[in-house]
Amino acid sequence: MHQAGPATLAEIERLAFMEHGRSGLRLRDDGVLADLTFAVKDLFDVAGYRSSWGNPDQLRDGDVAVATAPAVLAPLMAGARMAGKTATDELACGMFGMNPHFGIPINPAAPDRAPGGSSSGSASAVAAGLVDFGLGTDTGGSIRVPASFCGLYGLRTTHGRVSVAGVMPMAPSFDTVGWLTRDIATMRRVTEVYFGPAAAASSPRLMIARDAFDIPEPKIGGALLPIALSLGEAADVTLYPDGVGAVLDIFRPLQLHDLYATLGGWATRPGRRLSQAVEERIALASRTDPAQVAAAMPRREALTARLVDLLGDDGILVIPTAHDLPPLRDAPVSAQVAFREKTLALTSIASLTRLPQLAIPATTVAGCPVGLSLIAGPRGEGRLIAFAETLGDLAARDT
């Protein structure tokens, strides 16, 4: 892993944290997380703070929060100290951490490459050791992708299990709260603050989605598949019986319609300043075919039923987290679009089925971290963490 010197660390801190939310906050001095610090993605309400949502108009015109989001209160009341609010892709519409208004947070594990988004600032701060854990949101991969890019553990929780009150909605039928850590022990501690003590580890029924390992670039799939096969006795399953395109045809109209129904009015207000990429995405969302939205809804439910039945209450599905190495920081928008579509083929599965997914650091390729992911049935976060604990540090084992 690339090591940041003091001057570089200052630059990481400057780009990871939002200036308007840089002051720390502690509500109590005792508690199970009293020895930990954390960062909060700038979509969460914190009483007395503004939230920019990654947009300068919202920072200027938005109200100061009068109450703190429950998702932030949980660690605060467990004694953790909030170090500040962190950068996000504009309106959470991004997979890379590229924000032309406020800058691009640095990926401490690969400084010439993107940190991943939209929980980019939280990932950067955790990976650099500036905080112990970072809160973020995940709609289509916004916790899992930066975890893979930055060499972190990242948990997307079961949809609806953590309150999203006081969190900017992006696509409500997909939006979840999640968190990023450098190690699995901290991941367990933070998760138990939300869900209570996790059950003792048991032997999971492992399944490897072989067709999912055909999606990444050969250098990624070729590095990850042997690691997946080394995790224990596992059954081969087919995740995309009708092809990758069939899954994306469900995800796209539902997510775009959610986005426009939720933020379209705000984004299209006369005089609104939006980056070109977000303006184009809002325009695309405005053209979503209602017939496609209606047709996708029962198909989503059928996919969910199939996955929930497959996983049961003891199954864990193993897939790659992202399809390639992080894009370079100066990659053109066209390259970002192509990358997003391919990685969405992997991340959309848990998003559509509302299931928990834990991204874990697995190896390095060309000096960059590469993540593997574990998916469980509803409310199976504890099972994922318990299994990950038995694996030790895969990335260290693989070097």
UniProtKB/TrEMBL annotation:
The keyword Hydrolase applies. Residues 29-203 form the Amidase domain. PROSITE patterns: AMIDASES. Its EC number is 3.5.1.4. Keywords: Hydrolase. It comes from the Bacteria. It holds the Pfam family Amidase. GO terms for molecular function: amidase activity. The keyword Hydrolase applies. InterPro entries: Amidase_CS, Amidase_dom, AS_sf. This is Amidase.
